[in-house]
Amino acid sequence: MDAVDILRRRLAPHLDATAYSRRPCVLPLPMLVSAGVERQSDPARYQWDGMRRSWDTKCPRGVPHVVVQYSLAGEGRYADARGERAIPPGTGFIAPVPSAHRYWLPPGRIWEFCWFAVAHPQLVERLALVARDHGPVFTCDGGSALAERIAEVVEGLFRASFLDDFALEAALWDVQHELDRHADRIRRPPDAKQDLLDRVRALVFAELGSALGAGDIAKRLGWHRVHFAQRFRAATGFTPAAYITSLRLEEARRRLGTAGSTLDQVARATGLGSASHLCRLFRRHYGGTPGQFRG
What we know:
The chain is of the alpha+beta class. Helix content is about 45%, strand content about 20%. It folds into two domains: about 5-185, Jelly Rolls; about 195-295, Arc Repressor Mutant, subunit A. It has helices at about 5-10, 120-135, 145-160, 165-185, 190-205, 215-220, 225-235, 240-255, 265-270, 275-285, 290-295; strands at about 15-20, 30-40, 45-50, 65-75, 75-80, 85, 90-95, 100-105, 110-120, 135-140. The chain is globular, with a radius of gyration of 20 Å. The two termini are about 40 Å apart.
């Protein structure tokens, strides 16, 4: 089972449903968010024109927003002034509304995907810039940080697990930052140090809940454990183990911003084992307890 199919199964409980940010927004800027997981099989009923639609949430007609959609199975199509593109599993797109674009289900196909739509002036501007400067279509593995961030927004809305609007806004900015990172890597090939960090980061996030260590990563990269450790430290100035732990801790800290998960669950989901181990690492690295970050 590949990573996209694992993500598809994870989101299956929400299939053919839509979730909304229901609380009155308390942010300095207005924000409306919706999300869904869909399986489309009728081409006559699934076709969207970015110049002839409003949002299907409690958003007044004409309010600018952006749809971010990620394909889980089957295939759809996306077209704009740059041309027409297939959207198979592991591919997504950024669709500013209004703008001149279309996406649809081709005849004889099925298409399963997750999506979220957001109306937030600053996020709309930044997402539209990525689509304009780097193209609206992106490809990422189902186990990547970008796919995980998109899934977290979708799941969080369905489960009402964001502690408040600030946590939801932070999750949306996390998607934006991963899209920026993805675009930057394509536009500007990384140097040796950044390439090594990116490769290790991708492997950690692909198996985040496992106890993947430096030796496992060395094996996946085709290097001897000692050679990998030496090369990594020479390139970065710190050990592979320290970097892996920092990635897991940062992800754990992010997940503490959502409700519904115990410390044990957060620890296991981020490969840190147990709540007690998570607490020890938090005190060592951040000088406080996980509960303080959860607020």
